[in-house]
Amino acid sequence: MAPEPTIEQTTEGIPLDSPDSNDRVARRTFIKSVIASGAVASSGGLMLVGLSGCSEDAAPAAGSVERLVTLRVNGRDRPVDVLPNETLAMTLRYKLGLTGTKLSCDRGECGACTVTIDDVAHNSCSTLTHSVRGRAVTTIEGLEQPDGTLHPVQQAMIDELGPQCGFCTPGQIMSGVALLKTNPSPTREEARQAMAGNLCRCGAYDHYLNSIMRAARTT
Amino acid sequence: MYAFEYRKAASTEDAESGFTAADDASFLAGGMTILPTLKQRLAQPSDLIDLSGIESLSGISVEGGTVTIGAMTCHADVAASADVQSAIPALAALANLIGDPQVRNRGTIGGSIANNDPAADYPGAVVGLNATVHTTKREIAADDFFIGLFETALDEGELITKVVFPVPEKAAYRKFPNPASRYAIVGAFVAKTSDGIRVAITGAGPTVFRVTEMEADLSESFSADAIKDIAIPQDDLNSDLHASAEYRAHLIGVMASRAVGDCS
Fold this sequence. Notes:
The structure holds two protein chains of two kinds. By secondary structure, chain A is an alpha+beta fold. Chain A has helices at 7-11, 27-52, 88-95, 152-159, 169-182, 188-194, 205-218, and strands at residues 68-73, 76-81, 114-117, 120-123, 136-138.
């Protein structure tokens, strides 16, 4: 088996810290990163099968959707090779290396894979990647400011000791972020309803709610 | 998931021609049912035709005593619509009870009724309010639309464009939800309209149905007391690990009575 490409291979072609990096991505860089992410896709295929039975066993027919797409993720344009039947969670985790988005039930029940699409919370496991072309996807990795300042919801999670094991936390935070975007001063009940799509096996719901309410007070 | 082709339709005509051209296509609305189904390899469409890019299928309008909801309007938009909240508050409240926020942000009314899950909420409102389902080919009355378990009057490749709800005098929806999925174990939609009383039950049987005995008694006297002695036969009701048919039969009376109470 070929050595598995590292995450760096998919991202190093694009300068992370350059504000106008998107404009300056050379064609060569684009191709290089697509090849790299394609390689990740091949080795990741085993993981895809193991996780949800997603497979690449059929070659795309003529006239099918363009597989090489550019996604807007965390404020950056990311070129990536996407299968027609690929979910956003798969693309984020195994093509773009954004493993902060968790996959748990993989059928839209648990909310661990929650990301925001145009600032609205969605289960990325139940969203086809091709359907979000041209829309702004934000994952847990995209919340922190360039200077390292955490998003108020992230900081409140730390201050309130919100998580226990932490696995569902990225999804919980993304739901909280989406809530505060539309309702900056929710009541505790409104926050509870907004977080209802995120399951926590540790049962840390009240701690999460404390965190959301603290974040609402500090924003 | 088995491999399939993905196509994003630009218009309903585009979606229909794509459907006809493909070997065995399925439409993709919000994907809240079909994507989990595909992951379990319970279906193997050759193509998925994504309807999310068809702008004409989304939106809410209130005019002339009706509320019109585009087929691709998500539950969250119906729940949050000030127009729906003031015209048919029971409909907005029902939309807000579906699933969880992430599901309501993707799931659509057209997808819900086309799928016709026996435990879905919207069929209760469509039948309870005597809505009309508009498709690319025709208009279908609510009573003719839902045929059976996951079965509707839709033809192969026929696409729902919008659902038109007449504004009732009063209406209310009560459901006993599965505590995990929020699907209706039993949901009762009661509406008092100019054409009479309608009682639609979802979640209890293979598909939504009306309880004409309750409707008749409520026409005589619109009160929870009027229907408290009506026994619902359990023969055709669902029985599963969540609730027995006997329990569902009991819940129909309880949920309908509470909905009537909410209307008063």
